[in-house]
Amino acid sequence: MSEDKKLPDPSIIKEEILAKYPPKIARKRAKSMVVVDKSMDQEVQSNVRTIPGIITQRGCCYAGCKGVVLGPTRDIINLVHGPIGCSFYAWLTRRNQTDPGEAGPDGENFINYCFSTDMQDSNIVFGGEKKLKQAIQEAYDIFKPKAIGVFSTCPVGLIGDDVHAVSREMKEKFGDCNVFGFSCEGYKGVSQSAGHHIANNQLFKHVIGRDNTQPEGKYNINLLGEYNIGGDAFELDRIFELCGINVISTFSGNSNVTGFERSHTADLNLVMCHRSINYVAEMMETKYGIPWFKVNFIGGDATAKSLRRIGEYYEDPELIARIEEVITAELPSVKQAAKDVLKTTDGKLAMMFVGGSRAHHYQELFAEMGMTTVSAGYEFAHRDDYEGRKVLPTIKVDADSRNIEELKIEADPELYNPRKTKVELEDLEKNGLEFSEYKGMKNDMADQSLIVDDISHWEADKLIEYYKPDIFCAGIKEKYVVQKMGIPLKQLHSYDYGGPYAGFEGAKNFYTDIERMLSTSIWKKLKAPWLETGASDPCICAEYVA
Amino acid sequence: MSEDKKLPDPSIIKEEILAKYPPKIARKRAKSMVVVDKSMDQEVQSNVRTIPGIITQRGCCYAGCKGVVLGPTRDIINLVHGPIGCSFYAWLTRRNQTDPGEAGPDGENFINYCFSTDMQDSNIVFGGEKKLKQAIQEAYDIFKPKAIGVFSTCPVGLIGDDVHAVSREMKEKFGDCNVFGFSCEGYKGVSQSAGHHIANNQLFKHVIGRDNTQPEGKYNINLLGEYNIGGDAFELDRIFELCGINVISTFSGNSNVTGFERSHTADLNLVMCHRSINYVAEMMETKYGIPWFKVNFIGGDATAKSLRRIGEYYEDPELIARIEEVITAELPSVKQAAKDVLKTTDGKLAMMFVGGSRAHHYQELFAEMGMTTVSAGYEFAHRDDYEGRKVLPTIKVDADSRNIEELKIEADPELYNPRKTKVELEDLEKNGLEFSEYKGMKNDMADQSLIVDDISHWEADKLIEYYKPDIFCAGIKEKYVVQKMGIPLKQLHSYDYGGPYAGFEGAKNFYTDIERMLSTSIWKKLKAPWLETGASDPCICAEYVA
Amino acid sequence: MLLRHTPKEVKERKALTINPAKTCQPVGAMYAALGVHGCLPHSHGSQGCCSYHRSVLTRHYKDPIMAGTSAFTEGSSVFGGQANLMQALTNMFTIYNPDLVAVHTTCLSETIGDDLNQICSKAIEDGKVPAGKKVIYCNTPSYIGSHVTGFSNMCTGIVKGLVEHTGVAKDQVNILPGWVEPSDMREIKRIAKDMGAKIVLYPDTSDVVDSPQTGEYKMYPDGGATVEDIASSGDSIKTLACGAFASEDAAKLLDSSFKVPYEVLDIPVGLSASDRFITALSEAARVTVPAAFVAERGRLVDVIADMTQYLHGKKVAIFGDPDQLIPMVEFLLDLDMIPTHVISGTPGKKFTKKIQELCAEKAPNVQVQNGAQADMFLLHQWIKNEPVDLLLGNTYGKYIARDEDIPFVRYGFPILDRIGHSYFPTVGYTGGIRLLELMLGAIMDRQDRDADDTKVELVM
Amino acid sequence: MLLRHTPKEVKERKALTINPAKTCQPVGAMYAALGVHGCLPHSHGSQGCCSYHRSVLTRHYKDPIMAGTSAFTEGSSVFGGQANLMQALTNMFTIYNPDLVAVHTTCLSETIGDDLNQICSKAIEDGKVPAGKKVIYCNTPSYIGSHVTGFSNMCTGIVKGLVEHTGVAKDQVNILPGWVEPSDMREIKRIAKDMGAKIVLYPDTSDVVDSPQTGEYKMYPDGGATVEDIASSGDSIKTLACGAFASEDAAKLLDSSFKVPYEVLDIPVGLSASDRFITALSEAARVTVPAAFVAERGRLVDVIADMTQYLHGKKVAIFGDPDQLIPMVEFLLDLDMIPTHVISGTPGKKFTKKIQELCAEKAPNVQVQNGAQADMFLLHQWIKNEPVDLLLGNTYGKYIARDEDIPFVRYGFPILDRIGHSYFPTVGYTGGIRLLELMLGAIMDRQDRDADDTKVELVM
């Protein structure tokens, strides 16, 4: 494998990229493009405004709140208050699979529906509260849901509709339906990230902790930051079940409100996507005393490692033994699968620019196939996502983030119950468990690799020209742009309608899919033969990694 | 309705048609084109050679034998001995539906298969008997059928392969499989008709009468000349069942060899298609004493009439009452259906040129809708099909028919059992039953209508120009030709993949289908609007029938 | 069941839209802007809008869809987006070098009242727009009309921003194709060419959103109506505006500003609308229709005549955009099919009236509704109450089709789960045959599937 | 189960053909003859042959297929069919007034040894063929080869009967398209025209068997290669013969008789074969390939690149005619699909070899057989032993597809139960997109059908 191959120096291309920008922009972007040098601390500028006119991958606060966090929950009516578009675009476009099967053929599942107040100009002029109220009433009358979430889009905040007051009023009126609002207007913050935070806050305020029924299982956990894209959560559920671990709730893939309401009864919170959900983990620890640590179920070794950490956390030999059994049963076929694709994948280059944790986690999967990630970045990260939570105290809150509510949480007078004593936690940390910690993406990247936060089309274009990667990972907007350059692109938001990629089975799927993409014949036939000069070998670029 | 409307005189157009022909051809064709004058006997020349180069509807002897008569039987392997084409073209192209359901999911049904010896040039040169023998063996080995029929195509007779000897040999070898051959080479006779006769003969010689198990039902009949196109036989089965009449076998729609073998145990033979099957009816009467009469189940009234005749035959008040009950239950909705379409169909003109009995029977169905058949003819009739069986003694057998075997049948020494005494038959005849009789098509046609036997493309073309019929009935080869003239064509061989059209339900289907065809919008939009002169009203032609 | 909570009983709704049969204006403006060569669309609003619009267009076309955003923050929402747009223009021209930028607003910038005219004028004054480059714009408030309205508004924006009047008449006809696929635009050009009619067609997304894979990425693909051609449309003989909802406003503007008379036509989908289109084009361009078109038309008519039995009397539910539904409903009637439920989220009184007029004779019981609460939830409920034999509409229809087990043909926008629409036209006579192939295929596949073994047909 | 008696176990057969993947020569000759303008095909044999061939062609095209027959009786079979043919020629020229009659034999006339050359010469001598009219002919013994052979023989008959050699070279390329659909022939002409290549294409059934419905029946539709154009092909620069089985013999004859050199190409189905066709045509006609073809090709490549995941690794069973299977198998390989079972009833050793060569690298386990007993029964048994994800072939494949529940795309001859093949080409780059649309549609429809509620995808 290509572990110790030296990466090409990206400084030149960085300069070339910046040279095109107006000077102010260049200065700003320079701080978001960092050539990794692991020997030193490096600040990766992030969670700052997108520069207008720069073609960005980013979406908005609403997308992060409704689209990402609440979208995957099946038994809530997510009612979008605003003109029709925002609700339409978030309708079924994120592949969060959900299985209402357990609740029978009549089990609640509103995921396939799109609800909107479809605001019209008169609502903009005269206010939309009345229409919102009516819409909530109609939703309640038709569907009798147990919960309705109201999501504000851009104009709502501007015209001053108070979605929270309306929600409160309707909740009281209904009695049996939990109605609550989100002030997640698209212009809030600088990216989806603001929406995650708002979603976390409202879930914490309005849902988590409502049902104090204690779980029956022995090892009760929550899985945070797992959205069940392509069935990832199903695979993880399978593994947890094999291990005898009981998942109280997943935030928020294949989830239901019922689970959220009981999530505070868990023993442990596992955080997958640090960015989108760390707030909930933090708040649950403060309020209920549930510790959290970061896990990664992307990759065979990563999955095994994460499972082992759970075993260590519980310090229960029975659980530890069972986890080892599961790993012994499952991991070898994963290793074999990785080996099987190696002749196609070894030494190949990957780049990945995606939101959430994926740009980090998938580097491990690629490494298992002998592939090197030459450049990566997040779409809506904060500095801690790159540099680790150690930098949290040093992050300056700017104007764009200041208005995102920061909940003041205190230990619950009744329900606070530290799962582990301080001493126990310290002992576990000595043994390698890292509570409330995330070391960030940079920690796992090679020297000379290039981190780019909030990459722009221009930057991606030039990086591809420079690196000529074998595979590029990003989202739907980038997919066909990159492919037109002759480079296959793997969508890491939708998995290109493949997956699952999490857990043991997921890793195997991923290997196979990447092998397929790297061996697809058409990439060798892009040029019309009558134009062929014979000189354009698409692979000459790979030389410098050899 | 248009009962007494006077038809236009076709003499002029007949002249015009003949004028185009070379004189000898004209003289010959003139005899096959007869302007009906019911006040006199008129000879309709038929069953004569097709003129080479005239574009005809006709097929060949093989088509009549394998395609028509044996094709619909499900539990026999119909093995075509010859080059591949003949078997290929007769593969599933006749819409004879069959239901092996009664025999369970493993019930024999070879209808969807195509079997051929696929003769190669070496077989032509050195003879094909060896290959045939081997093919029969392979068919037997793979399928273990109870019967194998071998059909000869053109070269077989010429090269002298003896399919009968081979069949005999194999039959003896197998012991449990009835193998028999048909010398139905395509050049035999002048049309499919020769093939019908040959098929009738071989069925009679090799199948009928093999199983003497007596039927259990009270009223046991055979239905001859019904091929279950589009499920016609299913509808008739439904009606018979309602009436308590037991169908021993249908020749040969939805049929099986088992039924044929027992068919001689019936009380009565009902003949639908006179042309294709009268031989079997005749021979069964001679050998077993089963009377036959002609029936017609095409049309609501016709069906009622035919059922009543069966009742009369049995002279059983219980049966008669039950038949009346069925008619009372079923006929009114048929009448109503005819009434419902009348505003579209009344006064419209039809022409029909099809094989078998359909050109005759369907005139009645059209009449029920107020439509007039201005011209009709058969594809492969004999004179009796037009003029009635009374002319049988006067028909001269020409060279082409002389070689079709005429079986010498005598009363079976053991099984001959006249179902009715001579006196009984005479009494029944006095009451209107007509045994062994068919009055022919002309009998039911209006004065001034035009009979054309074996119509050619040129003749049809001119007749359409003259009559501008609202609907034309023929087969697949004519379908798109006629439609290109702007006239909808109803296929009466395949029913255009509609049907059933027999019986009560069938009549209703037919009314609806014809109404649909007459009211299809596209016929009014054939001309590109930029070519429209405004003058071409497609209906001016219908005036003379008003 | 995917839509297990949809009850059969229809309750009147006044405020809640469920499963919309429309989306918002800006995405239409973005699509229209892509129909100008060298144009970079720009979304003046929050980042999310641009991202969503690019995503849905990308999923529909499986092709790059590039656009800029003003990336509003809370500050811009309070103080106005002028600074953002000015900066965006500078950056876009500097970094991405388009020939022109086409700005549209969003509900955000509309609500705060940004004045595009003023901002763009200032940008030009301030030299933010390089020489030879252009900025065009239109207002697309998301809370009025639908995506179709946005398309229409950008068409008007194109006319306003690019058309010139030299006073020298040009022997050409303008065709505003309306919201159709690149394949359709390509086909209209082919038809005009084969008729010998000189036309200017815009917007023209062919060779833009169906761009070739050559291993070489072009940010501005070879297609799109050129600025020069568009400019010249002020000198044309006439404008044929296809689709009243998407094209009439722009045509009116060409008339009022440049005295180019116009005629509003249906998008040439199906036999009758294609007949009118060909006739109108031949009259406008003063060319006779070549014989080849008699044959082309005749082939469509032939398929209809030959296959009518599979179509006749079949009930159809259809949803989508008015300009696409109107000729399609007429086509269904020409096929003797029965338009049974017709839904469009796009408002406009004309629509219901038009559909009812079309259906008056042959399908008088048609249920039709558009605008507020005319959504796919209602359509689904209608279908539950009166089942249909065929469903036509965008990809979201799949969920209804599956639940109710109805043959389904994808028609309209967006189509997210199949390819073909961008390559094979549905306009014109050949497009009619394609529609027939698709509908017949769906109907016949169903017949094949549902037939008992006994009833399977070899020939159909 | 429709084919309930087909066992999984394969027993060797030596004499019995079951469910053939071919038919006999004359129908091919009839189809080829229809590709000459004003030609009335004539079947020299029993009536049934002519009736059967007209029927199957009619069912495939849903269009008039006219032809005469010598209507052999037992007498003619014994004494020879000369009198029948002489009379037929007289009648046909008198009554139906074709420009020419194209006679082919049948197994009957072949077995008795009728000498067409002699009979036709005599007919001409005897004045049975009016001035300016022609009779061409070929031998099509049904017991040799298959329908493809018959097509090939009539192509040769056309060359022999109509081509002339004036000695004045013409700047044109002959294209023998092979047995393809009228849509394909139309598309090849379009491609050549857009390339600026002057060609003579024959047979050309476009506008003959896909003739328009205008309310006016034309016994000889407007289409077909004209006798003049065919005559001139003796003076052409080169012949491109598409499909070795259907076109090579005629090309050879053009070479040997008229010194027109030839190149045998695959029918341009799919990417690679289309590439070779375009290149060969540009070289032969000495034209450079216009940029539009880079885009056309690029669109096909784009669809492949975008959709590869739905195709990659999918196992395919395919049956049909060699000339159509060879480029299709190559296309499947270009798509990274796995040709798994390949069957053709048409004999010829080249075929198996060619398929195995094509598959050697990517699908070395391909099962391929052609000729005797290479029938659909065997194919079905192979599928039972190794299931596939997709079946390609003519309408008869429906029975296997239904029994084994395999997605099915109609490809080849005959297609009796769907429309489309005569209108939409499968040749060339655009034809490739059509094939992709059909195959992807079948595969995706199946995915949609089989997905659990949980796994239904909105975007694909």
From TrEMBL, chains A, B:
Protein name: Nitrogenase protein alpha chain
Subunit and partners: Tetramer of two alpha and two beta chains. Forms complex with the iron protein (nitrogenase component 2).
Nitrogenase/oxidoreductase component domain span: 60-517
Catalyzed reactions per annotation: N2 + 8 reduced [2Fe-2S]-[ferredoxin] + 16 ATP + 16 H2O = H2 + 8 oxidized [2Fe-2S]-[ferredoxin] + 2 NH4(+) + 16 ADP + 16 phosphate + 6 H(+)
Cofactor(s) it depends on: [8Fe-7S] cluster; [7Fe-Mo-9S-C-homocitryl] cluster
UniProt-listed PANTHER family: NITROGENASE MOLYBDENUM-IRON PROTEIN ALPHA CHAIN
GO molecular function: ATP binding; iron-sulfur cluster binding; metal ion binding; nitrogenase activity
Classification via InterPro entries: Nase/OxRdtase_comp1, Nase_comp1_asu, Nase_comp1_CS, Nase_Mo-Fe_asu
Entry's EC annotation: 1.18.6.1
Family: Belongs to the NifD/NifK/NifE/NifN family.
Species annotation: Pontiella sulfatireligans
Gene3D superfamilies documented for this protein: Nitrogenase MoFe cofactor biosynthesis protein NifE, C-terminal, Nitrogenase molybdenum iron protein domain
Upper classification of the organism: Bacteria, Pseudomonadati, Kiritimatiellota, Kiritimatiellia, Kiritimatiellales
Domain of life: Bacteria
Keywords: ATP-binding, Iron, Iron-sulfur, Metal-binding, Molybdenum, Nitrogen fixation, Nucleotide-binding, Oxidoreductase
GO cellular component: molybdenum-iron nitrogenase complex
Gene field: nifD_1
A Pfam family recorded for this sequence: Oxidored_nitro
EC main group: oxidoreductase
Function: This molybdenum-iron protein is part of the nitrogenase complex that catalyzes the key enzymatic reactions in nitrogen fixation.
SUPFAM superfamilies assigned: Helical backbone' metal receptor
From TrEMBL, chains C, D:
GO MF terms, alphabetically ordered: ATP binding; iron-sulfur cluster binding; metal ion binding; nitrogenase activity
SUPFAM superfamilies according to UniProt: Helical backbone' metal receptor
EC number: 1.18.6.1
Coiled-coil segments on the chain, per record: none
Enzyme class: oxidoreductase
PROSITE patterns noted in UniProt: NITROGENASE_1_1
Gene3D superfamilies: Nitrogenase molybdenum iron protein domain (3.40.50.1980), Nitrogenase Molybdenum-iron Protein, subunit B, domain 4 (1.20.89.10)
Keywords: ATP-binding, Iron, Iron-sulfur, Metal-binding, Nitrogen fixation, Nucleotide-binding, Oxidoreductase
UniProt cofactor note: Binds 1 [8Fe-7S] cluster per heterodimer.
KW Repressor (keyword) present: no
Reactions the enzyme catalyzes: N2 + 8 reduced [2Fe-2S]-[ferredoxin] + 16 ATP + 16 H2O = H2 + 8 oxidized [2Fe-2S]-[ferredoxin] + 2 NH4(+) + 16 ADP + 16 phosphate + 6 H(+)
Annotated ranges, domain Nitrogenase/oxidoreductase component: 24-443
Pfam family, one: Oxidored_nitro
Cofactors named for this entry: [8Fe-7S] cluster
GO cellular component: molybdenum-iron nitrogenase complex
Its biological purpose: This molybdenum-iron protein is part of the nitrogenase complex that catalyzes the key enzymatic reactions in nitrogen fixation.
Sequence similarity: Belongs to the NifD/NifK/NifE/NifN family.
PANTHER family noted in UniProt: LIGHT-INDEPENDENT PROTOCHLOROPHYLLIDE REDUCTASE SUBUNIT B
Subunit relationships: Tetramer of two alpha and two beta chains. Forms complex with the iron protein (nitrogenase component 2).
Name of the protein in question: Nitrogenase molybdenum-iron protein beta chain
